[in-house]
Specification:
One of its GO terms (molecular function) is nucleotide binding. InterPro entries: Cit_synth/succinyl-CoA_lig_AS, Citrt_syn/SCS-alpha_CS, CoA-bd, CoA_lig_alpha, NAD(P)-bd_dom_sf, SUCC_ACL_C, Succinyl-CoA_synth-like. It catalyses: GTP + succinate + CoA = succinyl-CoA + GDP + phosphate; succinate + ATP + CoA = succinyl-CoA + ADP + phosphate. Its EC number is 6.2.1.5. It is a single chain. 34% of the residues lie in helices and 23% in strands. The protein has nine helices and 14 strands. The longest helix has 13 residues. The two termini are 24 Å apart.
Length: 293
């Protein structure tokens, strides 16, 4: 089992004919993803050859969905066009839209998140690495060769820490790993993923990676206390970040005592979540939770 993305997912890539879209489409195909279409306005009727697979290009998401049955979109579109691309996927009722683009204006993210919430689309991102269900499908830029299929669920704000924890626990493997993105406004939250992992019979335990800024981790702690019975371990990035500085992600800014790594660690530990001081220690805590070495 997996959450959000499975071997049956039919994926289209918005911006597939661009350099980044083409490169990562090839990687997704190599991971076993069923890429059924690319979408680039004005290039409908073209196709892109990826060796063993030739993928047709459509001029609109609606045409691609109608003709291929695509149910996932991955967006590799420049920031100023991303809002329109996501809104096009929402209008076409694509169930899952994965927004890789960094630097999306916040007002665009607010608008398309509201539209998605009122419709039938789940958004992952923006500014995220996407998600992967190892051995089944990959939608985004997460390397497929750093881990294996297993029964750990992972939700993370950080792309690079996602990769590190996947690698450190590669022998145990993952049901699904979701990089939700670190912007102030994202479509899918820690809580959304915690809920899905709790309900997934193929997930036995959960790794949650947070970082300084905002109160997402504190809210996740409250949700875990009330709703999650599976073991959860966590890591919070940013213990050494100076106050008042934005570190990496746009959402990772600490103001006074609000949003500090220590406050998040304390909130999580108060509800029984074991929090590692480093990613490697977090991996050890997960092994302990599963009775593995």
């Amino acid at each position: 089992m997996a959450i959000f993305l499975t071997k049956d997912s039919r994926v289209l890539v918005q911006g597939m004919t661009g350099a980044e879209g083409r490169r990562h489409t090839a990687r997704m195909l190599a991971a076993g993803t069923d890429i059924v279409a690319g979408v680039t306005p004005g290039k409908g009727g073209a196709s892109v050859d990826f060796g063993e697979r030739t993928v047709p290009v459509f001029g609109s998401v609606a045409d691609a969905v109608e003709q291929t049955g695509a149910d996932v979109s991955v967006v590799f579109v420049p920031p100023k066009f991303t809002g329109g691309a996501v809104e096009e996927a929402i209008a076409a009722k694509v169930p899952l839209c994965v927004v890789i683009t960094e630097g999306v204006p916040v007002h665009d993210a607010v608008r398309f998140r509201a539209l998605a919430a009122a419709g039938d689309t789940r958004i992952i991102g923006p500014n995220c690495p996407g998600l992967i269900s190892p051995g089944q499908s990959s939608a985004g830029i997460i390397p497929a060769d750093i881990t294996s299929a297993g029964r750990i669920g992972l939700v993370s704000k950080s792309g690079t820490l996602t990769y590190q924890l996947m690698y450190e626990l590669r022998d145990l493997g993952f049901s699904t790993a979701v990089g939700i993105g670190g912007d102030p406004v994202v479509g899918t939250t820690h809580i959304d993923c915690l809920r899905a992992f709790q309900e997934d019979p193929g997930t036995d335990a959960i790794v949650m990676i947070g970082e300084i800024g905002g109160d997402a981790e504190e809210r996740a702690a409250a949700y875990i206390a009330a709703n999650v019975t599976k073991p959860v371990v966590a890591y919070v990035a940013g213990f050494t970040a100076p106050e008042g500085k934005t570190m990496g992600h746009a959402g990772a800014i600490v103001s006074g005592s609000s949003g500090t790594a220590q406050a998040k660690k304390e909130a999580l530990e108060a509800v029984g979540v074991r929090v590692g001081k480093t990613p490697t220690e977090t991996a050890r805590l997960m092994r302990s939770a599963l009775g593995a070495r």
